Structure prediction request, 112 residues.
Amino acid sequence: MKSAKLMIQQIGGVLLLLGAATLMTEWTWSRYIYCVGAVMFAFFQLVDQYKGENIVLKRLYKQLSFGGALLLLTGVLLFTTHNNEAFLSLSVAAFIEIYAVFRISAIEKKNK
Prediction:
């Protein structure tokens, strides 16, 4: 079950990246590819929560959930506004995701 979740999240990440990369070309299907990837990628971040005692890791996992929600918001903004707002939301979400992932990795490595 855990490997299926990981595989779906990885496929979602690839679709998310592919959709975001093709947005600049204004290809018709890039928005749809992005949205499918965002749903697949963010779903497990929003559902899976940290159940440990470490306060810093709890905060970082909440930040991951917030980043996933911003990825979904970006998908909505792609269809409802001009691309400027969507790119701003995507940039903030990417920064939060990258920061949280690197910090979680460092803290878990330190605790072992």
Summary: The radius of gyration is 15 Å. Residues 2-111 form one domain. Helices lie at 2-22, 30-47, 55-80, 83-111.
